[in-house]
Design goal:
Elements lengths: L17 E3 L2 E3 L4 E5 L6 H14 L3 E3 L17 H14 L3 E4 L6 H7 L2 E4 L7 H9 L4 E4 L6 H12 L6 E5 L17 H8 L4 E3 L1 H5 L2 H14 L3 E5 L17 H18 L2 H7 L4
Parallel strand pairs: 3-4, 3-10, 4-5, 5-6, 6-7, 7-8, 8-9, 9-10
Antiparallel strand pairs: 1-2
Helix pairs in contact: 1-2, 1-9, 4-5, 8-9
The protein binds phosphoenolpyruvate and manganese (II) ion (MN).
Length: 280
């Protein structure tokens, strides 16, 4: 791929590790979990405690929601960020939250440990530049109509501002399929690893929009080599103000986390074991 001066692969096998409050993304498998949107202190703090207990390393939650309709809930804004801060103080979990407006980047960055740039804003070049200047790590979601090359060029915009901490996140792309909300492109995970040194997460919640697909796609993402997952979890999904059909209960999330742990142990040393058992 041409001209990926900073996002492109360097020496073979060299990976970028991004440290966020002691969590080493790119080195350890990191699960980011939390509600789609921040709704109340009780909802966020209870969810944060539950996902931490299950093994999540970071808390997600939107205070600014990019919604299809202007009449849908748009997020609590500053009040939401203060609630996330409370949940961070109670649990110690670092916070990932979305910023949708260039004018908000610097003050949202005062609350967020990681700034999320959503799929709809992936190619908002002024927002990318501002996020690059913010000094905060940036989670850059893949645009729903974007190629790998376009996505990595957007990472390049952030990196070119002197911010080396970019985390990619595959969240599904638009295809002719309508059964799922999006088509989760897991093949992009090993593809990213071939052409870039940046860590890549998978978001099976927006990637499928189907409750029953979140667990199998999470396990598959681990096998495909993802550096972690971003998963929506709500204490009471039917009452959620957004994305209620795709949010896991803390119980279902706990079961998934145990399976991920077992799968990680099963996969440890896979290459070495395959080499040992290879026919002479
Ligand atoms: C989100 O993670 O809250 C979100 C809106 O996701 P996406 O930008 O991938 O649609
Ligand atoms: Mn959502």
């Amino acid at each position: 791929m041409k001209n990926l001066q900073l996002a492109g692969a360097k020496e073979p096998g060299a990976r970028t590790v991004i440290e966020v409050r002691g969590v080493r993304l790119g080195e350890e498998f990191v699960v980011v979990a939390g509600p789609c949107a921040v709704e109340s202190e009780d909802q966020v703090v209870r969810t944060a405690v539950a996902v931490k207990e299950a093994g999540a390393k970071m808390l997600r939650g939107g205070a600014f929601k990019p919604r299809t309709s202007p009449y849908s809930f748009q997020g609590l804004g500053l009040k939401g960020l203060k609630i996330l801060d409370k949940a961070r103080r109670e649990t110690g979990l670092p916070i990932i939250t979305e910023v949708i407006d260039t004018r908000d980047v610097s003050w949202v960055g005062e609350y967020a440990d990681v700034l999320q740039i959503g799929a709809r804003n992936m190619q908002n070049f002024s927002l990318l530049r501002e996020a690059g200047k913010s000094g905060r790590p940036v989670l850059l979601k893949r645009g729903m109509y974007s190629t790998l090359e376009e996505w990595l060029n957007c990472a390049e915009y952030i990196l070119a501002e002197g911010n080396p901490n970019v985390i990619l996140c595959e969240r599904g792309i638009r295809t002719f399929e309508t059964y799922t909300r999006n088509t989760l492109d897991l093949s992009i995970v090993p593809a990213v690893k071939m052409v870039s040194h940046l860590p890549v997460l998978v978001d099976p919640s927006h990637g499928t929009g189907v409750l029953g697909l979140i667990e199998p796609m999470s396990l598959a993402a681990l096998v495909a080599g993802a550096d972690g997952l971003e998963i929506e979890v709500h204490i009471d999904p039917p009452s959620a103000w957004s994305d209620k059909d795709q949010q896991l209960t803390p119980e279902a999330f706990g079961r998934l986390m145990r399976k991920l742990e077992i799968l990680r142990e099963t996969m440890a040393g896979l290459d070495a074991r395959a080499a040992e058992t290879a026919a002479p």
